[in-house]
Amino acid sequence: MFSLRKVLTAAISAGVIGALITGTAVAPAQAAAKKKIAFVMGAESDPFFQAMKVGAEAAAAANNVELIWQGDPSEYSPATQIPVVDQVLAMNPDALVLIPTDPTALQASVTKAHNAGIPVINVDTRVNDLTNVLSFITGDNADGGAKAADALAKAIKYKAGKTYQVVVGLTSATATTNVARLDGFTKRLAAKYPGIKIKDKAYSQSSPAKANTNVSNWLTKYPNLAGIFAIDGTNAAGAAAAIQAKGLKGKIALVGYDAYKTNVDLIAKGIFTALVAQDPAAEAKLAIESLVKYFNTGSATGITKEVVIPNVVLSKTSTAAALKKYTYVQK
């Protein structure tokens, strides 16, 4: 009588024997594929995003997920970022971490991902409508702007009744981090230092060279300039270079954002009065961990909708340990 069980048993036995003879292993069941998380930042050359990558890679490795890290090499703009988002969405990732360069222009990208069933987290910056965003993780930007105003006022030895000219260097007029920092800065000036007037603003698209040009122009145009607020790291780097090139160390108060190692080193040299440091690695790590939690539970339960990470102000009075701790780690 024909027996299917006997045939299958014989076939399996033959396969095992064949494997023993040839020295090959019997293949186990196909392991489940790793989850893929696409992470799209603004400008890859920016040390802030490089430090963020360190945190993202560590979290991805610890949680056994594949990280797809993408971004324009140097320009921070929606025109360069949107095609990158489209490219990674075409790769069908299991999730998207997006640092939108513009809150309005990138809204459609979030909607596109959501409609494809891809959960989205915003880090650092955000889109206008967070309805389809699982979580938004950022630094305390308004507070950072206020602390920058305090540091600048202290550096220029502010006295009530006197007028002081300052300028502000930004990457973008619409990036939500820049908007919040400027808002915190201007509100603190109005409340505590009304004699400090913002004379001008300019944008760099995350290019230190462009920021350098902007500051060089200001130093020529405004001979009575008292201080500069460089609202992010690339503007801080460009401003520091321009001040040094013109031999104005100690004559123009410079308060910057982001603890690039090169910028931190310039605190001791008297170029920076203060730097507002964020924790980009922690932001990226939390984004990856939140998505892993979502993968494991299939639910947003336990994932905080909005997370604000405190800033730290670094200056000459900071300890060596603090400077080392908050300096951004780069690859």
Distinctive features:
331 residues, alpha/beta, Rossmann fold, 2 domains, six-stranded mixed sheet
What can you tell me about this protein's structure?
This protein has 331 residues and is an alpha/beta fold. 45% of the residues lie in helices and 20% in strands. It is built from eleven helices and twelve strands. Strands 2-1-3-4-5-11 form a six-stranded parallel sheet, sandwiched between helices. Strands 7-6-8-9-10-12 form a six-stranded mixed sheet, sandwiched between helices. The chain is elongated, with a radius of gyration of 25 Å.
List the helices and strands and how they pair.
Layout: H1 4-22, E1 36-43, H2 47-62, E2 66-72, H3 78-89, E3 95-98, H4 107-115, E4 120-123, E5 135-139, H5 141-155, E6 164-170, H6 176-192, E7 196-203, H7 208-221, E8 225-230, H8 233-245, E9 253-257, H9 261-268, E10 274-277, H10 280-297, E11 306-309, E12 312-314, H11 320-326
Parallel strand pairs: 1-2, 1-3, 3-4, 4-5, 5-11, 6-7, 6-8, 8-9, 9-10
Antiparallel strand pairs: 10-12
Subcellular location: Cell envelope
Family: Belongs to the bacterial solute-binding protein 2 family.
Main location: other
DSSP strand content: 15-25%
Biggest sheet strand line-up:
2-1-3-4-5-11
Q: Looking at CATH, which topology of the largest domain would you report?
A: Rossmann fold
The largest sheet, given as strand count, sense and whether it forms a barrel, is: 6 strands, parallel
CATH A-level architecture of the largest domain: 3-Layer(aba) Sandwich
Q: Which structural class do you get from the secondary structure elements?
A: alpha/beta
User: How many E-type strands?
Assistant: 12
Distance between the termini: 69 Å
Calculate the mean pLDDT score and round it: 91
Number of helical stretches of at least 4 residues: 11
Number of domain modules: 2
Share in helix: 40-55%
